[in-house]
User: Which sequence fits this backbone?
């Protein structure tokens, strides 16, 4: 499955491959008349609709009515700051680390932080080999199992292994797994998911030997070169979090710019209507 030209700027969570992966896992996303993907979830027994990483169109409410979703609480989490229908803020904007892949490699290498570039140079001088290929559509792939174990240990949430494997099954050439080898043994992995003219870093794993050899620096640099050669002009490295300062430094020093999301918001039309009924005339609610 490939994204069509009109879908080239859609974020990963709005891509056709993501929708196909959800369906393969038994979920039923709704595609609005304008093409946006809406997730349906249950939280504490309450049915919710979620519009992930999308800028709401001006006629969003009309599209929701046409899809029969107008009465569900709606979670909005736009990719970028943008005008929104009246809603309650649930979360302040995150900062995403994004690498512009359009400049030539010599300029992008010069834009690397000095320490990051020195680590890359050491990795390039070590006995490291790099290979890359599509991810096998196997939920028991060692990388997916290692990521699930790491997520449990560190207390963060990522896609279930089954969903990543379903994405690989739906769009095998939109996955790319880069592996660093040292003396015939894999020491680090980085998996990227491709969507239109962009790519997103998904998951990675590294052992102590790989850390000592700065293998992730080498993998990210090699992956950025390959992705640019394939016509991608943007690499999304994901959120930068104060709770993980080492990872934040790795991303920002890799030549990434920090770009804010539009935050997370809740809109629930029935509650809004009820508040409007109770409000005194002329009083602004929002």
Assistant:
């Amino acid at each position: 499955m490939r994204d069509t030209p009109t879908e080239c700027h859609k974020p990963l969570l709005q891509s056709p491959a993501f929708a196909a992966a959800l369906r393969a896992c038994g979920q039923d996303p709704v595609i609005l008349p304008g093409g946006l993907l809406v997730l349906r979830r249950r939280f504490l027994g309450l049915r919710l609709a979620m519009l992930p990483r999308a800028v709401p169109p001006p006629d969003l409410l009309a599209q929701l009515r046409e899809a029969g979703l107008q009465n569900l609480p709606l979670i909005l989490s736009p990719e970028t700051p943008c005008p929104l229908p009246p809603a309650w803020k649930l979360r302040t904007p995150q900062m995403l680390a994004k690498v512009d892949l359009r400049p030539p490699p010599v300029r992008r290498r010069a834009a690397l932080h000095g320490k990051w570039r020195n680590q890359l140079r050491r990795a390039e001088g070590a006995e490291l080999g790099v290979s890359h290929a599509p991810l096998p559509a196997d939920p028991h792939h060692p990388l997916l199992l290692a990521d699930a174990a790491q997520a449990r240990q560190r207390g963060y949430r990522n896609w279930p292994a089954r969903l990543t494997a379903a994405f690989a099954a739906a769009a095998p050439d939109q996955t790319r797994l880069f592996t660093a080898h040292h003396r015939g043994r894999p020491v680090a992995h980085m998996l990227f998911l491709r969507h239109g003219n962009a790519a997103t870093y998904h998951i990675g794993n590294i052992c102590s030997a790989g850390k000592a050899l700065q293998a992730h620096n080498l993998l990210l640099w090699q992956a950025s070169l390959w992705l640019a050669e394939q016509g991608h002009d943007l690499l999304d490295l994901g959120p930068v979090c104060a709770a993980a300062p080492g990872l934040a430094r790795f991303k920002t020093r890799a030549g990434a710019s920090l770009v804010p999301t539009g935050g997370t918001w809740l809109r629930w039309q029935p509650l809004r209507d009820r508040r409007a009924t109770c409000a005194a005339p002329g009083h602004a609610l929002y």
